[in-house]
Amino acid sequence: MSLPAPILDGLNPEQRCAVEHGAGPAPCPPLLVIAGAGSGKTNTLAHRVAHLVVGGADPYRILLMTFSRRAAAEMTRRVERIARKVLGDRASALSGGLHWAGTFHGIGARLLRDYAERIGLDPGFTIHDREDSADLMNLVRHDLGFSKADSRFPAKATCLSIYSRCVNAGQPLDVVLGANYPWCAGWAAELKQLFAAYVEAKQRHNVLDYDDLLLYWAQVMEEPAFAEEIGSRFDHVLVDEYQDTNALQARVLLALKPNGVGLTVVGDDAQAIYSFRAATVRNILDFPKAFDPPARVVTLDRNYRSTQAILSAANGVIDLARERFTKNLWTDRADGARPLLVSVRDETDQARYIVERVLDAREGGVTLKQQAVLFRTSSHSAPLELELTRRNIPFVKFGGLKFLDAAHVKDMLALLRFVQNPRDRVAGFRVMLLMQGVGPASAQKALDTMTAAADPLGALTALPAPPRAGADWRGFVAAVQELRSGDAGWPAEIERALIWYAPHLDRIHEDAETRKADLVQLAQIASGYPSRERFLTELTLDPPDATSDQAGVPTLDDDYLILSTIHSAKGQEWKQVFVLNVVDGCMPSDLGTGTSAEIEEERRLLYVAMTRAKDDLHLVVPQRFFTHGQNAQGDRHVYAARTRFIPERLLPLFERTSWPRVTPEAAAAAQRGPRIDINSRMRRMWT
Ligand SMILES: Nc1ncnc2c1ncn2[C@@H]1O[C@H](COP(=O)(O)OP(=O)(O)OP(=O)(O)O)[C@@H](O)[C@H]1O
């Protein structure tokens, strides 16, 4: 059975090729779909999966890997909708969604837990996010004596980045230092020692970091027996956003399906924006020839999203890229207005301009949610956030401070993680220090005893309370025991955890009440997961990333403007899009102009931002920026130039304007009224 004609007819010939590829009883050869921006990639992939299911593929044997959990959920929903149209109630196999849909890291975590016993891992392992990993790195760095005040040893975050790049890019330390961290090259021997000790510490504490999820998975796949066994669990493996995967992910993928049978990858090299995480566009470029015969390549270059005028400008920008593989996009949508290149005086005017335009559009029937403001770096939106708050315009921001980064949310999660895995030292340390009378030394001592014991919780219970902690300590031990027993059940145990945490929250934070609202939200999120373990794993791997000026994200019925970093805007579209600070220094970012590869990535970022717009696109260019480190009325500023990615020769693709407009009436008014001879006054000053 295949998708019926009315469903397939909605697809263009190339999309249909991608959907129907490999249908039938013969093994399905590998497929690469090069999908330009707005060319219906998500739609096509969803139809392909639905087509497979309708054709008889077992949904439990389909592995779908996307860039975020949100994307996986969206894809599953679409697949279900399409399959249900065809199969009706018989689509019930899909009722729980696709069983194996998620991110590379999430799927890795699940498989590692499944195979934990056989690969020598304790299945109760917990996962460290970047901040926890940096904390543990710091602990180890300190233990080795590298953190002495007089040494210029790299900071913990730098150490972690270096480690992470070695692991993800699969490159030796000296290569990574030479290419990416030349200022740290003198520390190669110490860094090696540090990383070895870091790995040992993770194993002692029974924790894995993000990179381990891929690294361990890749190592498991090196063993032919495991590779065969894991690969044979899936008939089809599909990967979205393949341009943003790294060398390790490609290794895992090729080990899962060495001959490429059942493998589909989708991506767009023009939208590769994650090389700072060691993603490599080579994965997508080298994919076809990894197989013999090479993978089939289907290119989607018809864009359904933007007007021709917006596409022409975006094509113009990406045409100047040094190296390009995909073709220019085309559309049969009407021309539309050229994107605006708007010159404003400074960031304050930029904010005012946007607010004015956003409200105009809303008057014209475009809801706030259909409009988005995009920026290179989270901090760029600060003046706009102020203006929006002042004007009472609700907004939700993506890609900035994460909900989970808030100290109180981290405290609660640390407690749950410690309960899940009492050897998790970073979690234990954080929780213990919340109590009055427990300092670093007594926490260290308690954790050392636990680490050395076969039964760490038994050891904790047997420990005497630190002298000044008394009742607090006993309450803590009782809470940990109770939570560990699982008597309250999940998610009710969150309430129990809160009972323990609330008095500490009240004591530590003046704004405890507002913070409690976040914890209520955390409890709500928790109720969406079947167990403590799944909650902790999924939340660490793909944290909710919206923060708003209010406590909590507005409900779905509310209308709100979207603010987002360009990275977080990936895969989305809006009717009207504003891009902030389209100037050199912000785009390309000062931080990203080291190498020509970095500059190329910044160019692609602008391209990604521009291709999010359906009807109206505004690129805003403030003329000057106030410098930091002066009082509010200070007037020190620097002048900025339009981004180098829009040179003179591209200007005809844009409509240039400045704001606020000087109207003829205002100009005429300046000509009327009293007159003075300013020149003679100046001369008189010296006579
Ligand atoms: N065959 C089609 N006919 C009409 N509209 C389509 C078709 N395919 C896709 N679209 C529309 O095109 C728009 C872009 O689709 P989608 O979001 O899947 O693009 P994408 O390729 O994932 O984009 P990007 O890579 O830029 O995020 C959507 O509004 C979608 O409904």
UniProtKB/TrEMBL annotation:
PROSITE patterns: UVRD_HELICASE_ATP_BIND, UVRD_HELICASE_CTER. The keyword ATP-binding applies. Keywords: ATP-binding, Helicase, Hydrolase, Isomerase, Nucleotide-binding. It comes from Rhodopseudomonas palustris (strain ATCC BAA-98 / CGA009). Belongs to the helicase family. UvrD subfamily. One of its GO terms (cellular component) is cytosol. It catalyses: ATP + H2O = ADP + phosphate + H(+); Couples ATP hydrolysis with the unwinding of duplex DNA by translocating in the 3'-5' direction. Pfam families: UvrD-helicase, UvrD_C. ATP binds at A35, G36, A37, G38, S39, G40, K41, T42. Residues 14-307 form the UvrD-like helicase ATP-binding domain. The keyword Nucleotide-binding applies. Residues 308-571 form the UvrD-like helicase C-terminal domain. This is DNA 3'-5' helicase.
